[in-house]
């Protein structure tokens, strides 16, 4: 029958599409902090300025799409603007400095084994958090901090020193 091969091609295309959708897993779910006007504006500008690749990973879709966040790669490196202060952070907390931007990393995340890392630009307002899955350990940490440093420096800096 002349119509039968067309139907088979259509079904094959649908099957391939479903397989790709399943393999990609769809958009990355991200937090969407509740922000006031000034922080919302600053985060919108920050997210708009984010690069299309981070630590050699391409940007991927997020859900909700209007969150002040971005995701890169699979598993996703997630960048979120407007987060609360990280647990354990306080005056005199230690930090890593990359291109004049200061990043807080909880002390329990330091080590010689691959692990998920949470970096927070805790001395900036609004704060920016980056969650880096263990798959990218150790090289992505320095790359992420260096790539995001110019954007973090554009945010308002609050006082305080880091060790």
TrEMBL record:
The keyword Signal applies. InterPro entries: DUF3515. It comes from the Bacteria. Residues 1-25 form the signal peptide. Pfam families: DUF3515. Keywords: Signal. This is DUF3515 family protein. It comes from Nocardioides humilatus.
């Amino acid at each position: 029958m002349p119509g039968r091969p067309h139907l088979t091609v259509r079904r094959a295309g649908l099957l391939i599409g479903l397989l790709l959708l399943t393999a990609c897993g769809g958009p990355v779910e991200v937090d969407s902090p509740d922000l006031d006007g000034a922080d919302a504006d600053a985060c919108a500008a920050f997210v708009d300025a984010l690069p299309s690749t981070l630590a050699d990973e391409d940007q991927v879709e997020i859900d909700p799409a209007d969150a002040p966040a971005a995701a890169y790669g699979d598993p996703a490196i997630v960048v979120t603007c407007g987060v609360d202060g990280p647990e354990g952070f306080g005056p005199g907390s230690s930090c890593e400095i990359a291109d004049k931007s200061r990043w807080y990393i909880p002390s329990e995340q330091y080590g010689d084994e691959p692990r998920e890392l949470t970096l927070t630009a805790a001395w900036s307002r609004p704060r920016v958090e980056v969650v880096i899955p263990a798959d990218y350990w150790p090289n992505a940490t320095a790359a992420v901090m260096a790539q995001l440093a110019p954007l973090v420096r554009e945010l308002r800096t609050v006082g305080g020193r880091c060790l």
